[in-house]
Amino acid sequence: MASNKGTASAERLDLRSDFISRPTAAMVEAMVAASAETPGIGFREDPVVSRLEALSAELLGKEDALFCPTYTLGNQIAINASCQPGDVILAPHMAHALISEGGAPAALSGAQAEIVETERGAMLPAALEAALARKAAGGRPRVGLIVMENTHVHSGGCAVPEDTMKAVAELATAHGVPVHLDGSRLFNAAAFLSVEVTDLTRHADTVAISLNKGLSAPVSAVLAGTAERIAEAVDICHRFGGGRHRRPRANDRVHGRGQRQRPFSGPEVGGDRRRFGDQRAGGDQHTLHRRPPTGFRRRRLPGPLGPEGHAVLSNVDGSMRAVLHKDITSAHIDSITRAFEEAL
Ligand SMILES: Cc1ncc(COP(=O)(O)O)c(C=O)c1O
Over the stretch 254-277, which tens digit does the pLDDT of each residue have? Predict the structure, then answer.
């Protein structure tokens, strides 16, 4: 099986996702300590989860936050809270919430999607304005929600610039439409853009972050927004099956102060990741994206990118991606960069 341990040269790396990043020693210690605390039996009764929610709300600059067992649930709660059946969601091309969550917006909320012209994961404000104006002129269907995704996973992890987010938020406000930010990897975006996370979250009514991707926790996510929106989210979470009587043990306190991960902010590896990003073909700051030549067949490749080599994923557009996270070292990056150069 692919592993991320040992030296970089001959080892087989698993670069399919940052899902597989491992908790830090401090996180594991905090999980053990937290398991000694009595969780309570009701919704929002668990003191450990309450601290996680309060810390998340503070970090994200929102009034309240709700622990969600999965990130998908957080996105879909936000959609359900804003959309009535028949409503339109305006979103970037290949938004995860629309195309990679089992058709949930339609199935769970009766919402339909309209894709706005997108460049490197960012909706073009002029295109969004035109879509909003068309809807305003026709009156129907109602636009229930605008979704932004930062970083945008299916463009290879591109960070959406703050200016674009601001422009989207201003249009949304002008048309009275709420904005949800799919910030699964928002800390990556903030580090890449050299801004505070709150510089980005201020342009959204609700925002969710993943704890189990760049932040290395084993599971789960947090959805943040106004106290009123999160109160609604609690009901929807319960309705969608996300209620629980006990916190998942594996995630106890992983987000506590002092154990917080700052992906890509370390000068050494951060520098590498920028370098990595700058080399991209279709690219981004947290994955290496390369588009193989026409007729390329990975299974015919004998080298480190072949079936017996590093584990990487193919994207829907035919490019290959290798995902970076905190357990991937500078030496690993050199090794995978060489592998791509040799293979392609
Ligand atoms: C941008 C984005 N949003 C949402 C999700 C859903 O997260 P989960 O699979 O943890 O529910 C993912 C998963 O990769 C993602 O990349």
Answer: 443 333 334 433 333 333 444 444
Q: What's residue 54's pLDDT?
A: 96
Count of the separate structural domains present in the chain: 2
Identify the three-state secondary structure at position 3: coil
Tokens of 185: 């990897």
Helical pair 227-239 and 71-82, crossing angle rounded to 10 deg:
110
Q: Are residues 168 and 314 in the same domain?
A: no
Omega before residue 302 within 30° of 0, cis: no
- Cα of 10 from ligand 1 centre, angstroms: 31
What residues flank ligand 1, with Cβ below 6 Å?
Answer: 70-72, 75, 96, 149, 153, 182, 184, 210, 212
Specify if 94 maps to a domain: yes
Question: Residue 323's domain spans which residues?
Answer: 267-343
**330 and 210 in one domain?**
no
| pTM score above 0.90 | no
Residue with CA nearest ligand 1 atom 7? 71
CATH number of the domain to which 156 belongs: 3.40.640.10
Residue-wise pLDDT for 70-89, tens only, equals 999 999 999 999 999 999 99
Q: Which of 186, 220, 239 is the last residue of a domain?
A: 239
- Please state whether beta strands 112-116 and 143-149 pair in parallel, antiparallel, or not at all (unpaired): unpaired
Q: Which of 148, 213, 251, 316 to mutate to test ligand 1, by most ligand atoms within 8 A of the CB atom?
A: 213
